[in-house]
Structures are given as C-alpha cells and as structure tokens.
Amino acid sequence: MFYRKHEGDLIYKPLKKGRIVRGNEQGLIFTNFVEPGLLDEFDKIKFAPCLLQKYIHKSLELRVTVIGQIVFAVEIQSQQTPGSIHDWRRVQENLPHKLFHLPADLENKCRNLVKELGLQFGALDLIITPNNEYVFVEINPNGQWAWIQQLCPEIPLRESLADLLIDS
User: pLDDT, tens digit, for every residue of 10-55?
Assistant: First the structure.
C-alpha cells in the first residue's frame, strides 16, 4: 500500500482548489497529513479526486516567482507556526516572509523550466528539507504574487511584471 511504502509520511491534496460549500458556510481543503487513524476510511477517497504524495519534511518553504528572465525568491517560515506546518496557506496572518537568495544553479533551473514550458511567468513552490535539500513541489503559470510584495516591499514583482508587459 502507498501509505506503508512511505512509512506513514503521506499527505492528501485536492486536485483543484478544494472549496466546500455547505448551506451558508464555506471552507477550503488544504494539504493535510494523513494520520494513521484515517486508514480505515481510505476507501472513501475513491469518490473524491485527489493527490496523495509522500510528505516532505521542511525547514523552509520557498515561493520562487519568475517574470521573464528575472527570478525572485521568498522564504516562507511555515515551520514556526503550528497551523502552517503542513500548508502555509492555512495560517497566513503574521507568517514570516523574507527575501531569499537562491543558489545560482537553482535560479537558472527555475528560469529554464519557465522558458521550456513556453511561459513568461511562473510561480514555483519549493521546499528546503532539514538536510538542506531543495525539493520542487509545483509550478503555477498564473500563481498569485501580489501578497509577496505586500509582505516584502523590497521585491519589485509588480514593476517587473509591468515592464515585461510593456516590452512584449
């Protein structure tokens, strides 16, 4: 079984934004750690398209935004807040963000991935493990970015995006 193969380090993610509406109440399904007690109910997810992935232990999360040839990286210190350990989107208020300097080879890989996909913009999510390994999670061709500049005003995302659009 997939769960045993990964020694219980497993997460569940909705395939698409997991919005739940029940009457007047709305909620979101975030990335969740699969607790051992849920294994007895595992057969129920066959009716709910999802992603099951090996859980990657984190020391930091990175949001890397590529705009044209420019690469910006921000560290999200998700492991400092209990509610954001598995998914930083769960608790965004007062979650520390700061400019991060990627190693040059990784910066080039991010830039090249966006180019190879035929894009001019990409929002990449990466994890840095406790062993200082970089793990690529996903790329979003229309990922959100404005919140980064609100938290880190020294990062000129808005201006870079405007320059790219003007020069295109």
Answer: 888 877 767 777 788 887 778 888 877 777 777 777 777 788 888 9
pTM: 0.85
CB-based contact 90:103 (threshold 8 Å): no
Neighbouring C-alpha atoms within 13 Å toward the C-beta of 83: 7
> What type of residue sits at position 156?
P
The pairing of beta strand 18-22 with beta strand 25-29 = antiparallel
Element (H, E) at 139: strand 134-140
CA distance 115 to 10: 32
What the chain holds in terms of domains, given with CATH numbers, is 2-54 (no CATH), 60-167 (3.30.470.20)
Residue 107: phi, psi to the nearest 5? -60, -45
Q: Work out the number of other CB atoms within 10 angstroms of the CB of residue 123.
A: 19
Tell me the residue ranges of DSSP E strands in 30-111.
32-33, 50-54, 60-67, 70-76, 97-99
